[in-house]
Amino acid sequence: MAEETIFSKIIRKEIPADVVYQDDLVTAFRDINPRAPSHVLIIPNKLIPTTNDVEPEDELVMGRLFTVAKKIAQDEGIAEDGYRLIVNCNPHGGQEVYHIHMHLVGGRPLGPMLLS
Ligand code: 5GP
């Protein structure tokens, strides 16, 4: 059984976060340390630690991350100019929180693909 992270508490509203979207499958909230004018984390409500733990039965929720990313990008007014979706995995991928999350980053030109 994977260990819960602070993101589970955000999903359950046990600690404050700037939640911009929530449904039965996913929750989206603003990153506490934004790297760009728009920086939202989109996460499954179910605890999946990393992309290495994604199973075929998770395909619906993983697809929902993308449709919610599209909606939030539109809401943020960054869809036309563009944005970047990032999922980090494990130490070499720079993952810090072991509850899988999609970063939606935009609102300015982001430059080369890899963020330092
Ligand atoms: P990772 O490096 O795991 O892909 O990204 C984790 C992200 O979660 C970081 O961008 C970090 O700023 C964000 N983060 C960590 N703890 C919190 C928190 O308690 N609240 C919010 N809103 N974001 C957090």
Bound molecules: guanosine-5'-monophosphate
Class by alpha and beta content: alpha+beta
- Biggest pleated-sheet summary: 5 strands, antiparallel
SSE run: HEEEHEHE
Q: What would CATH call the architecture?
A: 2-Layer Sandwich
Total count of helical runs of at least 4 residues: 3
At the first level of CATH, the class is Alpha Beta
User: How much helical structure, as a percent, in the residues?
Assistant: 10-25%
Q: Could you list the spans in which at least 5 consecutive residues all have pLDDT below 50?
A: none
Radius of gyration: 14 Å
Q: Tell me the fraction of residues in β-strands, as a range.
A: 15-25%
Gist of the model:
This protein has 116 residues and is α+β, with helices and mostly antiparallel strands.
Topology (SSEs and partners):
Layout: H1 6-11, E1 19-22, E2 26-30, E3 38-44, H2 59-76, E4 83-86, H3 90-93, E5 102-106
Antiparallel strand pairs: 1-2, 2-3, 3-5, 4-5
Guanosine-5'-monophosphate (5GP) binds at residues 6, 17, 29-33, 41, 88, 94-97.
Explain the overall architecture.
A 5-stranded antiparallel β-sheet has the order 1-2-3-5-4. The model has no long low-confidence stretch (mean pLDDT 96). The protein has helices spanning 6-11, 59-76, 90-93, and strands at 19-22, 26-30, 38-44, 83-86, 102-106. The chain starts with 5 loop residues before the first helix and ends in a 10-residue tail after the last strand. The chain has a single domain, classed as HIT family, subunit A, CATH 3.30.428. With 116 residues, the protein is α+β, with helices and mostly antiparallel strands. Strand 1 and strand 2 form a beta hairpin. Guanosine-5'-monophosphate binds next to strand 2. Guanosine-5'-monophosphate (5GP) is lined by residues 6, 17, 29-33, 41, 88, 94-97.
